[in-house]
Amino acid sequence: MDINLSFKKYFENLKISLLFGVLFIFILFLINPIFSLFGGTLNISYNILNIDIFSIIFGIIAVLILIFIYSLIQTMIIYKIGKDYNISENIKFNEIKDPFYKLLKFNWILFLLIYGISVVLYDLNLLNNIIINILFLIITISLWFVPQIIIIQKEKTPIAMYYSIIYWKNNWQHLITLFLTSFILILIANILDALFKEILGIIISTAYFVLFVIPFIEILKTEIYLNKYKLLKPKHQFKKIKKYKM
User: Fold this and answer.
1) CB within 8 A of 32, min separation 6: which ones?
2) What is the pLDDT of residues 101-111, one digit of tens each?
3) 3 within 8 A of 220, measured Cβ to Cβ
């Protein structure tokens, strides 16, 4: 099962996951009017009309730095998991610099686009509209596998977006696995935030979210996406077959 295998891969790549500690420390020291922390997630205010321009600029730059760190770790995780499959076994990390830059640009543009639209919708009192939120959810889910396609298949971003969208046509059952797993893990982060008061709750829930939830979901996404290659077998499966033959 993808979830069980993803847990195994998470602990195998624990050192990479711990690099999210850099992101974690950075988040804790973000003291800015447009930021707030709840349930381990970074929340950004859309009411920027009452905030001075320097705070807005600093806030956006801070988020872009966070996305840079996130994209770097995201690339490393996807690459490491992909090495368990033949399609990327011989790829050296210095060969995936271009895919990393593509992923970084994609993440930056996607954030700025969604944030800009959200600011406008907030001013129009439409941001909490259920239809708007459903549309945002559909867009997010449709582009879930863009990082995996860019890093592993080295496709251009528009093609990666197209492949990610059409992936769900014949693999809709994976949507349930990813959605429910993400929902439960984020719910746990919110519970941790509520159980522990004030700053302690923020620290514990954010550490849990950054050090476990984000890398684990990325590993799960990669394992699920690589399952579409029916003839490819992870290295651990090859080892089992070898032992059996002996």
Assistant:
1) 55, 58, 59, 62
2) 999 999 999 98
3) yes
